[in-house]
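Good morning N.,

You mentioned wanting to compare the apo and holo forms, so I went ahead and generated the holo version with pyridoxal-5'-phosphate. This is what I fed in:
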Amino acid sequence: MKKETSIDWGNLGFGYIKADYNFISYYKDGKWDDGNLREDDKVTISQGSTCLHYGQQCFEGLKAFKHKDGSVGLFRPFENAKRMNNSAKRIMMPEISEDFFVEACKKVVKANGRFVPPYGSGATLYLRPYIIGIGDNIGVSPAKEYIFGIFVMPVGPYFKGGMSPVNFITSDYDRAAPNGTGSVKVGGNYAGSLLPHHEAVEKGYADCIYLDPLTHTKIEEVGAANFFGITKDNKFVTPKSNSILPSITRKSLLYISKEYLGMEVIEREVYIDKLSEFIEAGACGTAAVISPIGAIMHKNNKHVFYSETKVGEVTMKLYNTFIGIQTGDLKAPDGWIVKID
Ligand SMILES: *Cc1c(COP(=O)(O)O)cnc(C)c1O
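and this is what came out, ligand included:
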């Protein structure tokens, strides 16, 4: 096997890097094959593939971490397996056994050992699993054949030089319909988010905040991340809705707030005109873990949370605990870390 990479771990962003191997499995005649590792990073499919025309595809995102002892651990991969199956079901794609999913993740990480960033570098190995509908089709109906693939790439820490707050603006666009596909990770949700994101960035914000599609009064998502707020009496609050994508980072933060930091946690509506109940707020997702929210602009009203330049204490504690668990420095709850052999 190839030995070293020339990657500068300290200067990685979030961009495509071709690793040594990717995993690919085909679904045909009603079943998945065993899959295999390959070096080619191109996928050749029929021009009639349903993923190309009707958005029959879904994806996942998770990370692997190098621990102090040199071992490598995946963070909660069974949660991604479950969520991927929920996505697949919603758009009539075949499910994958959770064990098969996790074994495939392990295989591809192991094969790309030299791309796993060193402990302490702040960089991690990002895994991108996906399922796409393929084959010669043209009518609007589920494909008969599918690909389940996983590729990996090393990614840098989201905030270089430490976490710092960013500002967001509410959007008049909706990312999902009340009973649509907002709660599953399907590609169709993301094409529609490109323009709202672009417009928010043009106005000088990190991203937009989506309100609930029915009444536009409650916070749903912060770009492609979930929202949380910390109340004055130290409660961890995160929105509840059928059209939010259930973030695994959020699920983990709910647990960490309660079990590690002894906070009360609540899932409920978060009204955009009642932001003053929070002294800190953040966006959470696999890529950044937590992006502290400095301020939210809504209808020309700017609401500042803790500070536009400093990170709040609770947010900092949550972040440090989370990273500690992921990197193996703190004891993880049972089943959260799946070691690569
Ligand atoms: C993936 C995603 C998230 C974050 O989920 P994690 O499991 O924490 O990475 C949040 N919102 C949307 C819309 C997403 O696609």
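The chain has seven helices and 18 strands.

Happy to go through it together on a call whenever suits you.

Best,
F.
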